[in-house]
Amino acid sequence: MDEFALIRALVAKLPPPGPDVSVAIGDDCAVVEGGGRLAVTTDAVVEGVHFRRDTMSPPQIGYKAIAAAVSDIAAMGGEPAWLTVALAVPPSWPEEDVVALYDGVGEAAAAFRTSVVGGDVVSTEGPLWMSITAVGHVHRPVTRAGARPGDVLFVTGSLGGSAAGLDILLGRRGGSAIAQAVLIERHRRPVPRIAFGREAARLGATALDDISDGLASELNEIAEASGVRLVVEGERVPVQPEVTEYARVLGKDPLEYALYGGEDYELVGTAPRDAFARLLAIAQVVGTPVAAIGRVEEGDGVVMRRNGQLEVVARKGYNHFERSRP
């Protein structure tokens, strides 16, 4: 495929840039109008590591790649504004499939009100990969390091659906056909919690993280960065109902999917009690369920109370460089 013809075909799939873009794709650099603080993140997506072509279509791959990057901006309490996409294409990918990736990229960019302002396209002999840089406005950054004893520990939405959906796509069937379809959709089309993250920052959240590698991993990140102990009430963790159905058919613990599955892209965070009360009210306005799942104490690590017993929640979850992955 011709490089420049491919770029033209990819750009044609994107929504028009916003009014804050002075120079769009087509020059050496994009030029954007962005005053104040900016949040910047880069997220890579690699074939065979983050997706398989037999479980996701090219548009689904493109959409999820953008959603994952944008979720990092949401986890800082920011508002995503601009994206760049670097794409390495192997000979095994026909041009029509590469262009179809950008059906998903364009759909996600429009859904999350962002502009794709540049990137790069190269060839490779290895697997296909994408590298997305997302830039957003952030007035009050909320890091992982702000949790304080006495804070409420909370999480948005429900958990475990993405991991269970991947299980189903890999051939592990269980539960009703409707439940399976819901879980597969959850895996393929995550929804970053942009509006809630923005409001959480405004209303006084002390720590935020997005659940990409599993709740257990993100909880340990907050505990370590903040120098505190997180106490989780296991019965309060909001497991997606379809996960509960699926897991019970297979004889598995549904909570395992929530703790260690990953790729839910919900937000987990902490807030003082008065701030959390305000978050409960605003959650209805922005259409994002939120639940208190525990508290912050002095100490270190993460423990969970379940069936009257306390157990340590280890930092398990997806890790790119562990020899044996969960």
Structure characterization notes:
- The structure is a single chain.
- The chain is α+β, with helices and mostly antiparallel strands and 326 residues long.
- The chain has 2 domains: 135 residues, 60s Ribosomal Protein L30, Chain: A (2-Layer Sandwich), CATH 3.30.1330.10; 161 residues, PurM-like C-terminal domain (Phosphoribosyl-aminoimidazole Synthetase, Chain A, domain 2), CATH 3.90.650.
- It is 36% helix and 25% strand.
- It contains 10 helices and 13 strands.
- The strands form 3 sheets. Strands 8-10-7-11-9-12-13 form a 7-stranded mixed sheet.
- Helix 3 links the parallel strand 4 and strand 5.
- Helix 6 packs antiparallel against helix 10.
- The protein is globular, with a radius of gyration of 20 Å.
Brief overview:
By secondary structure, this protein is of the alpha+beta class.
SSE topology sketch:
Blueprint: H1 3-11, E1 21-23, E2 31-32, E3 38-46, H2 58-74, E4 79-89, H3 95-111, E5 115-123, E6 129-137, E7 152-156, H4 161-169, H5 177-188, H6 194-203, E8 207-210, H7 215-226, E9 229-233, H8 241-250, H9 254-260, E10 267-271, H10 273-286, E11 290-297, E12 301-306, E13 309-312
Parallel strand pairs: 4-5, 9-12
Antiparallel strand pairs: 1-2, 3-6, 4-6, 7-10, 7-11, 8-10, 9-11, 12-13
Instruction: Name the beta content range.
Output: 15-25%
**CATH homology superfamily of the largest domain:** PurM-like C-terminal domain
CATH class of the largest domain: Alpha Beta
The structure class reads alpha+beta
CATH architecture of the largest domain: Alpha-Beta Complex
Gyration radius over CA: 20 Å
For the biggest sheet, the summary is: 7 strands, mixed
* Count of folded domains: 2
Number of helices: 10
Q: Report the average pLDDT across residues.
A: 92
| SSE ordering | HEEEHEHEEEHHHEHEHHEHEEE
Q: What does the overall shape look like?
A: globular
